[in-house]
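TL;DR need structure tokens for one chain.
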Amino acid sequence: MALTAAGIFGTWLVTDARAGEPDMGAINNMDRAAFVQKFGGIFEKSPWVAEQAWDKRPFTSLPQLHAAMVEVVKYAPVPSQLALLQSHPDLAGKEAQTGAMTASSVAEQASAGLNALSKAEMTQTSELNAAYKQKFGFPFIIAVRMHTKEGIFFEFQRRLKNDTQTEFANDLQNVYAITRLRLDKLLGEN
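>> reply
TL;DR here they are.
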């Protein structure tokens, strides 16, 4: 079996070059600090998720690692879940314009063309962001890598018709989709 090693944050992960799978043994052997350093950015500005997921080791697969992180959020108190949602930037909002977003958010929003909106689209996005936050108290979250720009605008308007409980759940489901994509990217999965 051909093995390759890649250094990330000073921690070496061994992968099977044929399968492209991360070495779960190496991940399971990380101490808490190394684990949080490596996976703390998966959930937007919420390293507490990785810190608590570390206790759920050993992980047998990447999907199981992600499921453990999702479980931490699902069973977190509502104020912690709300803080997680509120840590996400507005789509093409002031954080994007001032360069204050995480690298992951920048890449994700750019993948749907949100970094190159027309003036009319910027105005529409700003109005939708404000209306959504006014109605629900947290930002609109969508897994932009899974949508076109037009699809995002459609979902924005469709979801504005929902109640707060539905949108809280929708935002969390989108966070889970975003974080799975981030985890796959971090560990080189397709």
